[in-house]
Write the structure tokens for this entry.
Amino acid sequence: MNYTDSEIFERLKQYFGFTAFKGNQLDVIRNVLAGRDTFVLMPTGGGKSLCYQLPALMMPGVAIVISPLIALMKNQVDAMRAFSESDGVAHFLNSSLNKNAIAAVREDVLSGKTKLLYFAPESLTKEDNILFLRKVGVSFFAIDEAHCISEWGHDFRPEYRRIRPIINDIGSAPIIALTATATPKVQMDIQKNLGMSDAQVFKSSFNRPNLYYEVRPKVNELKEIIRYIKNNQGKSGIIYCLSRKKVEELTELLLANGVKAHAYHAGLDAATRARNQDDFLHENVDVIVATIAFGMGIDKPDVRYVIHYDIPKSLEGYYQETGRAGRDGGEGKCVTFYSYKDIQKLEKFMQGKPIAEQEIGKLLLAETVSYAESSICRRKTLLHYFGETYDRDNCGSCDNCLNPRPKVEAQGDMELALETLGVIGDKFKIDYLESVLVGKSSTLVKSYRHHKLEQFGAGSAHDERYWGAVIRQGLILGLIDKNIENYGLLSVTDKGREFLNKPYPVTVTLDHNYDSADGDPVGVPAKGGGADEELYAMLKELNKKVAKQHSLPPFVIFGEPSLEDMAINYPITVEELQSISGVGAGKAKKFGAPFVELIARYVEEKDIVRPQDMVVKSVANRSEGKVYIIQSIDRKMDLQDIARARDLDFGELLTEIESIVNSGTKVNISYYIADAMDEEKAQEIYLYFAEDAESDSIDEALKELGPEFTEEEIRLVRIKFICEQGH
């Protein structure tokens, strides 16, 4: 059946109340109505759903929509029923329905009332559903979230691979595949697996101009999140966490601080998830805290901010999750808290998986690290990842463009990087090229005899971080290619060879270093936490002065995160000082008086209104683990046994003990150090912190003390030193 444009517009107005289409919706709909296979790449908020909803209402038969998210099905079915006089127009068949409900749905479908029938891929594979669908006239199959079919996608689901054979089993009908995120590699994977290589492809721009992107160092992040929410009172927001446990903890913390919030993850029963989702949609709560792994599937147009408490596993996941902000074209802030330690945790989770899966996972993670640490425009980096070019030098709506770091001239360095890559060939990844440039003689480098090359170490004037920035700039400029199918192997492009023949000026912006001991000069303190820079500088000077009076290193008095927190919250009494990060009662009483006096004078002189309503309230009953650790140390229990009892690895236990000590509680682990360490080594580490250390940085200590000292040993002695000297 042929449909004219006037009919399409008439039905658009009749069913949805719109008079115009967005982007290339009309072209997509024409293609679907013509019965042709269709592939749609459209960013979140671009109007993908309409591309199959309108044709489904116009065409004879029922459209089968395959979606991985039960939440999204319910949401879309509710929306379709709101547009129609009959509730039977749209249904879903999934594990949340009982037998009576399933029978009622089937009756509506067979009677011709239903135009859209939603399935989860798992439900579609059930024999009784296949038999049922053979009796039904299917207008077309719509595969939503089609990136799930690709192991290179951010949410790979093996059951999506079975969709094509099942469609063949049910009966031939056109396919429309839709996704909001697909790199060129994922796009090929989708088309190949769905047997739709000849499909007409409709690709919209992935640029979301209304979204603001920012990456912050993961320092005092809970306080930062609560402050952010309170500064955006009444606005809807989503916070993504990596684990269900963190979702529950953060939700509890938000509730304790007067934020209306719900948790949302796969571990909750279906009724609770549905209730929490509806409360968010109906604005009974402002914030949903959700797991990244489960995915939200909430079609809410006015989400004003998306916060990532944990960095996602891939840039595709990040793009889709941030894409839930500002779907109506209004304000959309995307703030991510980043620490390389989170990346290391994600790498640990991959252990035990098949090697190929680990390789893919590591490559996707490396892209995320590159995005987080790079100082290039965030929008430019994201769009490049999806195969799109962004020509503007400054988007004006990301932290890197609003707080640009100085650029350095790098024409000669780009030449060296390309020349070296040309010599070693296209069998290596970024980290290998960096190693050759800085002259890092690893076993792998030696096995290829690349340590004998003229270029080996030719770039040793700079570190690997710098060369990473140069190589990434080469990728963005199209001088270097990264072969995704071969796990990210690099090669020089034709454009790169032209550059080598006829070089031209190139500038590189140096990467952020969110985990350095001194912090990132752009991100901290001004951008990272909104600290008062003038007060921060005064407190830093006072810290040095007090340290000198007590003959101690400054970090033993108050660490930089504590000083930053003081410059944000302006404590003017010793009691208020105890609410500052890393300051316990003992430390506040011992060293606090001159600090609160300075802050009180500063507040009065500058007429500052203090953010006392921003003080983060703790959640009760979260300290049992710490109490157990303190009591066990008092009983001189072996630290390894304490770690096993709390189901922690030894490094995690040390982090817990450091947290206890930083909050002002003194513990005595001398008994363990005496048993576990050589006395001379322990003494040397102790003397280093007492006499030579400029900060409490473990990396600096490792560099200074040498390779015979381990990180574990240094952390143990640092705990002992701070307890004895700082409390």
About this structure: The CA atoms of residues 655 and 715 lie 9 Å apart.
